[in-house]
Specification:
about 240 residues; alpha+beta; six-stranded antiparallel sheet; about 25% strand
Length: about 240
């Protein structure tokens, strides 16, 4: 089995105006294969139980060997959360490197994954929210619907998992809704190019964010043709 490449990952998180920070990130490099899996979870609610669920889910997903794929990673997160009586619920996105320098992505809820080429972002995931459910059916939506998730780590069946992949070489940006529901993809890219991952979450809070703001970025691998590399989205 070819070894997946390991990429440098950077994370940042701010509590914002919430009581607790119920977001969590996980990044784990398998010592046998050298592959680095990254995950981001966002607890449902503003309490210790939500925070506990997010930490358990992100850790379990990130520690799943990349070759097993995102379905196994989400199931591992589910097992970790349901086994802990003190844990609440959360949403999750996980990105697992592939031998070609791309990623396989799985998610439940409204945490997002974006392909990142060093200059531009492309959204890879589709929110599992009430608003998106009605939007895809051509029905009207209201702003509160954007915050009602239709899947979560505790509730999602495998057939409801979101799955996709991006061909390499590619970088990756995972965000909680405290980031991507405050900032456009264009703004996020501008901040990443001109600043850092810390600047990204700080900007989300500064513009009026009312939630935790968390992100993890995996830098794209060096490319002989320059900093802008091609990436291609394909359904799993």
């Amino acid at each position: 089995m070819p070894a997946e490449r390991s990429f440098p990952a950077h994370t940042a998180s701010l509590r914002g105006p919430r009581t607790v920070n119920a977001d969590a990130v996980g990044a784990f490099t398998d010592p046998l294969t050298g592959s680095t899996v990254v995950a981001l979870a966002d607890g449902v609610g503003d309490d210790a139980a939500a925070s506990r669920a997010a930490r358990l889910a992100a850790s379990a997903a990130a520690r799943t060997p990349a070759h097993l794929g995102p379905v196994v990673a989400i199931k591992a997160a589910q097992a970790a959360v349901t086994a802990d009586a003190t844990a609440g619920d959360c949403v999750l996105v996980v990105a697992m490197p592939t031998p070609d320098g791309g990623f396989r992505i799985g998610w439940v809820g409204d945490a997002r994954a974006h392909a990142w080429d060093g200059q531009r972002l492309r959204l890879l995931t589709t929110d599992h929210t009430l608003a998106q459910f009605f939007r895809t059916r051509g029905q009207p939506t209201t702003p509160p619907m954007e915050h009602v998730v239709t899947t979560s780590v505790r509730t999602a069946a495998p057939k409801q998992f979101g799955l996709t992949h991006v061909a390499g070489p590619a970088g990756m940006l995972l965000t909680s809704d405290g980031v991507h529901k405050r900032l456009t993809a264009e703004t996020m890219a501008e901040v990443l190019v001109g600043g850092s991952i810390s600047a990204l979450v700080e900007t989300a809070i500064t513009v009026g964010g009312s939630d935790n703001a968390t992100a993890i970025v995996v830098e794209p691998p060096p490319n002989a043709d320059g900093p802008t590399v091609a990436f291609h989205l394909a359904a799993a």
